[in-house]
Design a protein that fits this description.
This protein is an alpha/beta fold. Helices cover about 30% and strands about 25% of the residues. Helix 3 packs across helix 4 and helix 3 runs parallel beside helix 5. The radius of gyration is 17 Å and the shape is globular. The two termini are about 15 Å apart.
Length: about 220
């Protein structure tokens, strides 16, 4: 573990609710994630995996402790820094969160806009290439309503990866995919780590992909095991 790792967490605690309803969700989390690695978070439902992932990805405010993302402290960080770090992070949600009025291609292009890139022939080519890598070359102009659940999830993966983010955070990215499609997505993330140094942290209940992980981290009742 090194303090220069892309994700470094020290003494992290997190709560939900207020007053008597306040409940602690994470307890004294200490974790470093190495550059280019594929780290998998496992544990029962409600154990704190997704909460930890969202704190890493600037999707929740850090309440207590330290979370450093790409060398920057998130505790008390200003909005401008948070937005800059989000542009360097690709997030794959368990629910695909596609815009229903946009085609697959347009949804992926939104991923480039998040990274501050305008629509150009080059960015369109990058989006088409990413869709093709995920077996969706012939679905680029389809609306989400005309895609299967697995196809929608692959569009969401393409949207997260098309901007070549430094860090990818994935919440159950293979849940809606069959075996081959799921393994293909995880192998792609693994290759990005090896070729570009992309760091991936993935929450999963999918035992099929554990053999591909560089590291497996178990969480139970808000504590690392």
């Amino acid at each position: 573990m090194a303090e220069t790792d892309p994700i470094v967490i020290r003494g992290l605690n997190h709560w939900f609710g207020q007053g008597e309803a306040r409940k602690q969700a994470l307890f004294d989390i200490n974790l470093s994630v190495a550059k280019g690695s594929l780290t998998v978070l496992v544990g029962p439902s409600g154990s704190g995996k997704t909460t930890l992932l969202t704190l890493m990805g600037c999707l929740r405010d850090v309440q207590d402790g330290s979370v450093r993302l790409l060398g920057h402290e998130l505790m008390g960080a200003k909005l401008a820094l948070i937005e800059a770090l989000r542009r360097r992070t690709g997030v794959i949600f368990q629910a695909h969160n596609l815009h229903e009025s946009l085609t697959a291609m347009q949804n992926v292009l939104m991923g480039l806009q998040v990274h501050g890139l305008r629509r150009t022939p080059q960015t369109e080519a990058a989006a088409r290439h990413m869709l093709a890598l995920l077996g969706l070359a012939d679905r680029a102009d389809y609306l989400p309503a005309n895609l299967s659940g697995g196809q929608k999830q692959r569009v969401a993966v393409a949207r997260a990866l098309v901007g070549n983010p430094d860090v990818v955070l994935a919440d159950e990215p293979t849940a809606a995919l069959d075996r081959e499609a799921g393994l293909a997505v995880v192998r792609m993330l693994k290759r990005l780590g090896q070729s570009r140094g992309t760091t991936t942290v993935m929450v999963t209940h999918d035992p099929r992909i554990l053999d591909l992980a560089d590291r497996i981290v178990e969480i139970d009742e808000g504590r690392l095991i």
